[in-house]
């Protein structure tokens, strides 16, 4: 058996690392669009029109029960076929990252709707009424009071979602996505996978620190969002200067 | 100045308000008394448009509003002329004490940030919490939170302030500071409608007492009349339960 060559690991590492930008791209796009879908779902579920509320709940249930790779294939092969004609042709020419973004946006749409809903429901309903009672509009109350607190509560979940998306992205290799993993596989295949172990090692060396950094970042963010704590440390800081 | 006519409200088959009418003059301090479930909270919530009454009418200054059919705009106009102090304080948890007060002035009343902060600081001074201006609600005691809640209401200079049991969520040792704050407002001529179970306080501070039971106003009048010689048997029975308290307090 062949031993691991540091040179090879380095090669895979350096050649694949830049493709983190693809990962970054689909993670960001999926999160942004996903949260917009999620917000829409929450509104629909709260809507007085029963049928809309039912459709929204059904969407969440169905997506929760669908494995990501199934949805990915459905979107990648199914969508162009279903739409057919010129639209289908145009879709067929789109790059894989486009389909990955659609798939994960749909997923995040479902899971973020739960996050948004629980963040909303954990707020004391009274704060909305308090805002209204001093003459603010519903929108102002939402924007200045409810939303900031919801974001704060959702932050740990957003961190988890990013890490989930990064890892699930490995599946997207199956439809030809060239993210970090796709690129590493591509390079490895060129050398008929002789250096597969070196490649996986290099991938680990990329995924681990990034995941750790994201976790850490969100931990800090969570603390920063707690105004009372943030202010206390600020006070300590200025106390130290004085 | 405030005229409320024939407010009715049911939750499902539960008829909670069965036609309530009363008037408040400028400078009045109205104490609303009544057993649990008599509809006191629901009444004030209808007047602040937190609940939609089934019918009823309200006049406040030059505004005249149907409590069942109204636009969002009229609801907001009324809310800009009133304020509400909640049983659970309901301070904005993401805002400091000062911001809790100034936000109503900037967002709710269109004042500039600078003006708002000046008024908010003055309101904090009035409730004796100037030194807590940049504290967050979670860093304050219940009594302090409620005093901020009162300052937030006072700051928007409303025609009338509604209080829903402002001290009943407080530890007994913190009740006094909040009642004193309200007393001070009463002395300055602030118009208030206060739901309370603090009978001694109601007798001391109010200019008018309303006794509610079963969704109707059973009796209303000046405190010395209601507390010493009520006309209605139901009022007498209700007050009898508290009379001993008075003897100790006064
Ligand atoms: N949102 C609601 N949905 C259904 N029923 C309600 C609602 N709010 C109040 N009620 C009912 O209306 C009745 C009157 O309630 P309300 O809170 O107005 O009484 P209250 O006089 O303020 O009592 P307390 O002294 O306990 O605060 C009660 O029977 C209560 O169960
Ligand atoms: Mg009540």
Key features of this structure:
heterodimer, A: 242 residues, mainly alpha, MetI-like fold, B: 250 residues, alpha/beta, 6-stranded mixed beta sheet, 9 helices, 25% strand, globular, binds magnesium ion
Describe the structure in your own words.
The complex is a heterodimer of chains A (242) and B (250). Chain A has one domain (6-237): MetI-like fold, CATH 1.10.3720.10. Helices cover 82% and strands 0% of the residues of chain A. Chain A has helices at residues 6-16, 20-46, 50-65, 68-83, 85-92, 96-121, 126-133, 138-168, 180-190, 196-224, 227-241. The model of chain A has no long low-confidence stretch (mean pLDDT 87). By secondary structure, chain B is an alpha/beta fold. Chain B is built from 9 helices and 10 strands. Chain B has helices at 40-47, 72-80, 97-106, 113-126, 142-155, 172-187, 199-205, 223-228, 233-249; strands at residues 2-11, 14-24, 29-34, 55-60, 63-66, 82-85, 160-164, 192-195, 208-213, 216-221. The two termini of chain B are 32 Å apart. The interface between A and B is medium-sized, with 22 and 34 residues. Magnesium ion is lined by residues 40-41, 164-165 of chain B. Residues 40-41, 164-165 of chain B line the site of magnesium ion.
């Amino acid at each position: 058996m062949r031993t691991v060559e540091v040179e090879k690991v380095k090669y895979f590492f350096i050649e694949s690392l830049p493709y983190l930008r693809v990962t970054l791209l689909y993670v960001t796009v999926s999160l942004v669009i996903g949260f917009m879908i999620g917000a829409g779902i929450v509104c629909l579920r709260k809507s007085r029109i029963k049928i809309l509320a039912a459709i929204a709940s059904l969407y969440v249930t169905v997506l929760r029960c669908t494995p990501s790779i199934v949805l990915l294939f459905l979107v990648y092969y199914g969508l162009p076929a279903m739409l057919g004609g010129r639209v289908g042709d145009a879709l067929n020419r789109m790059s894989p990252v486009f389909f990955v973004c659609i798939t994960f946006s749909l997923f995040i749409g479902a899971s973020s709707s739960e996050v948004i809903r629980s963040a909303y429901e954990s707020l004391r309903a009274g704060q909305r009424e308090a805002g209204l009672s001093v003459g603010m509009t519903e929108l102002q109350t939402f924007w200045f009071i409810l939303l900031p607190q919801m974001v704060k509560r959702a932050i740990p979940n957003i961190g988890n979602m990013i890490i989930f998306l990064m890892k699930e992205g490995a599946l997207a290799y199956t439809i030809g996505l060239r993210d970090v993993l796709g690129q590493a596989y591509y390079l490895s295949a060129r050398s008929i996978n002789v250096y597969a172990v070196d490649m996986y090692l290099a991938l680990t060396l990329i995924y681990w620190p990034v995941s750790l950094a994201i976790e850490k970042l969100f931990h800090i963010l969570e603390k920063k969002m707690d105004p009372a704590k943030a202010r206390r440390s600020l006070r300590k800081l200025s106390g130290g200067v004085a | 100045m405030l005229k409320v006519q024939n407010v009715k409200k049911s939750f499902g088959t539960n008829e909670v308000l069965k036609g309530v009418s009363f008037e408040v003059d400028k400078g009045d301090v109205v104490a609303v008394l009544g057993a649990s479930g008599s509809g006191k909270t629901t009444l004030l919530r209808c007047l602040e448009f937190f609940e939609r009454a089934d019918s009823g009418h309200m006049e406040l200054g030059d505004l005249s509003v149907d409590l069942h059919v109204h636009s969002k705009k009229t609801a907001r106009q009324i809310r800009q002329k009133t304020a509400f102090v909640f049983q659970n304080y309901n301070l904005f948890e993401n805002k400091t004490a000062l911001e809790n007060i100034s936000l109503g002035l900037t967002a709710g009343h269109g004042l500039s940030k600078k003006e708002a902060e000046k008024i908010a600081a003055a309101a904090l001074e009035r409730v004796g919490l100037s030194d807590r201006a940049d504290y967050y609600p979670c860093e304050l005691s219940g009594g302090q939170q409620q005093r901020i809640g009162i300052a937030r209401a006072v700051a928007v200079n409303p025609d009338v302030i509604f209080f829903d049991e402002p001290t009943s969520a407080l530890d007994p040792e913190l009740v006094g500071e909040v009642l004193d704050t309200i007393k001070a407002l009463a002395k300055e001529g602030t118009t208030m409608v206060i739901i309370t179970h603090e009978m001694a306080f109601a007798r001391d501070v109010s200019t008018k007492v309303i006794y509610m039971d079963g969704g109707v106003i059973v009796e209303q009048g000046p405190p010395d009349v209601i507390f010493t010689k009520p006309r209605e048997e139901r009022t007498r029975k209700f007050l009898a339960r508290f009379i001993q308290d008075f003897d100790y307090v006064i």
